[in-house]
Amino acid sequence: MTTAQWRDRVGRTGLYTLIAWMCLFFSIPLLVVIATSFKTSAEVRTFSIFTLPASPNIASWIKAWAHACTGLKCGGIRVGFWNSVRILIPSVILSVSAGAVTGYALSHWRVRGANIIMLLLLLCAFIPYQVILYPLVKMESAVAIYGSLAGIIAVHVVFGLPVMSLLFRNFYVGLPEELVKAARIDGAGFWRIFALVILPLSVNILIVATILQTTGIWNDYLLGLIFAGRDNMPMTVQLNALSTTSTGEIEYNVNTAAALLTALPPLLIYFFSGRYFVRGITAGAVKG
Amino acid sequence: MATPVPVRLEAPLASFQPDRAIEQRRVGRAYHLRGRAARLALIPAVVIMAFCFYGSMFWTVYISLTRSFLLPVYKFAGTAQYVRLFATPRWQVAYSNMFIFGFLDIIGTLGLGILLAILLDRSVRFEGIFRTVLLYPLSISFIVTGLTWQWILSPTIGVQQLVRSFGWTDFHFNWITQPETAIYTLVFAGIWHQSGLIMAIMLAGLRGVDREIWRAARVEGIPAWRTYVSIVLPMLRPLVVTCLVLVAIAVVKSYDLVVAMTNGGPGFASDLPGKFVVDFEFERANIGQASAAATVMLGSVLAIVAPYLYYELARKNR
Amino acid sequence: MSRNLVFAAAIAGLSLSSSVGSPQAFAQKADVMHWWTSGGESRAVAVFAKEYEKGGGTWVDDPSIGPQAEHAAALNRIAGGDPPTALMWTTGVAVQQLAEQGVLRPLDELAKQGNWVANLPPLLAKSITYDGHVVAVAVDIGGANYQYYSVKVFHDLNMEPPKTWDEFLADAPRIKAAGYIPLAYGANAQQEDWLFSALVAGVGGKDLYRKVFVDHDPKAAASPEMEHVFSAMGQLRQYVDAGSPNRKWNDTLALVETNKAALMIVGDWATADFTTAHLTLGKDYGCQMAPGNQSAYVMTEDVFVFPATNKPDQIQAQDKLAKVMMNPAVQTAFNRIKGSLPARQDASVEGLNACAQLGTKIIAGGPDNQLPNFSLAFSPDTEGQIEDLLGNYWATPAVTPADAAKRLSRILASASQ
Question: What is the pTM of this model?
């Protein structure tokens, strides 16, 4: 081996070691959570969080999914699963679309004060939503969508708009002007250019946006609790109800199993769309 | 300075073959309508912004000038809430914590995220697995992972106890139980939570950098790290700003993180304004105080963030 | 002020009539919000549900994630025009706040029929009344000032569980030297409340307790007796273990269950936890009142309130719910599972939690023995301020007992409720 090759080999090993250590640091909490979910209640009580379960037992997983009690219903977190799905899909589609159109309108079109509008919109993202729940409830009930599926979807769209718009706006500004100009000269209007020119190039950023929104909406519970109405409670409400009791027994093994089950959909989305995710922003460079 | 983006002009335009004569007139009209269509498309966003956000913020500021406890009471009461707020030791601690925590969390998350992106950019194998491992903290409810961090950092059942059981009986790691250091444990968890996302975004940006740049740098004999620092990262500046915004938003809204890890303790040493506001909003049934705290918190953050963001946004527009 | 209640009912009616989204109204369908989500609590709620459904009608269960989330959800539902039939609420001043806002339906007729007020301890009767009207139902009582101790630890050390705080402070060094944790304690707001209550009553006496908790007297808060209380609390710092900050009460109780700690100051709901861990009263663990608290009972209660409505089927459902919940026999059955005591004093305590039964004797000793807990005594805002003070004092030895007493005095002086 030449010195250069040797240096390269050392460099690569160092690189992999560094990454591996990082991953270990990152995964420790996950490993503890997984280990706890396979323990029996007695084992959890002995407080050695780093020990592996004596014999992995899936009783708490089954209980979390199907039998855990939250109030009278002892149906586990399965109860809310389809509700979460019904809330997730329209909310993601609508909020991503709204962000895309807004970002597009603010990037390539002569709109006076586009920067100011973008800034004002962006500043809204900093408001902690708990403070403005009451006025939103009043607004929603004034248009008669409070406590319904439409109500919770509307709320998710509203809260997703600022960040989604920023994401798309920054991406589209990075696309060369010549593209849109050429299309204008050919006589295409606002929507036509969006459909035929912009969208095909946006696959990448669309995936980024989808992942961000899916994670946020899937894991939300407070908005679901307040706006979704009794019949549409997402599964995160059950998850949190399981984990949070002030004077009753806390079953950590069931809670961790429930948390892992709830985290599965976003995790799967990361894993499978991961390739597109990276290749995504790649080909169109979210640059500016 | 914009780098030429690898562009693939898509086929759709090719199929659009209008008659040139009619086109001239259409172009004239299109130019006139152009701004109009965009403005129309922006109406939903502007309406939402005005009513849902700014309208609500205005309502919040109004409530901070009343003596509302459980439900809104619209009788003006002057600055009483602010007077009380600034005299509250817990608020003083929470407010200063926001800057300490924010500064460390932003630097740490961006730094680690960018570092990880660079490492993964060097074409490693098993990238899918690494990336998923680094991204998963974002996907799991913080209620559970925060509690897990609490266990791990606890001196009696966590790392300190583990290391001591290996023989190093003098090992100390009880940051989470000490008032002076509890806030730093929040930084740990915060960095852990979001650096995967930053890594993913930055990695994608890095991948979009023209390989020509790399070739040119190598020809000039510039070492890799130098290329990153002086050439590549500045090119991705707007992307870095987006990441900065995402982390800053998370800092300001921190609630689940604090509750799950330290619940603001010991005492209120690791409290943050986000939790302060929510506690007074719900648990303490005092929305007057909550609104005052929210107003002060947001006012301070926006005073810093708005000018900077405007500068960055204006830069990008050609 | 009672005009408010009527006015509120009218407003509620208006907003209800403009709401959309509630499923078809079955007769006597009760939508009940609460935060009892653990296994034992859920089984207890089932008692109410079954009773309610006996005469026809459905119980729609609406459990929430703890009191704060439930409050938020309930208030917003009321604001949005879709109120639940009944909801659990934090007892005490918080109920008064709701009533003040005109949100609750007065239950005077039912109270008269069921003879509620006469059969509740005076403290509770006061807590469910606003401006002369009964606005809530009380379903159970808990005692927050017990000590649960490890039989093994005291047996090994040949000691008795302490009868006074001075005794405990004298015994603690020996316990610590033997390798046990003298006081199992997790420094969070809940446990701070329990410990502080037990100290005020045990070190300062019931009179001081009443002056501070009932009369909100700032002078009493700044008195030497209160300084003495804070001083005792400060001395306890060295007798807890290093993992104490922010540790949940059941994890802390586990220290007693596994015989690592000598005792814990906690309420009678701890019995259920021992039972789940298959431990026997008398053999593995013991319970008695906290040191110095032998004739004091720090009372907590759970209450349900009924949002104002003018929908006839909702009103019918509410009536039935209230009757079920305040029925003595039902309360006994409910509490048998939940592990606390019935709120009604004419309900049987047979078969109930043995530790909770200690409390009945003390309650029977008269109103003088019955002390309000934090929720019954203070508004949530004031309670929060005191908790901030206690948490800060505990975590910061640099704050002197005199400082702490002064700060408490200031809080009481400026507290409007």
Answer: 0.85
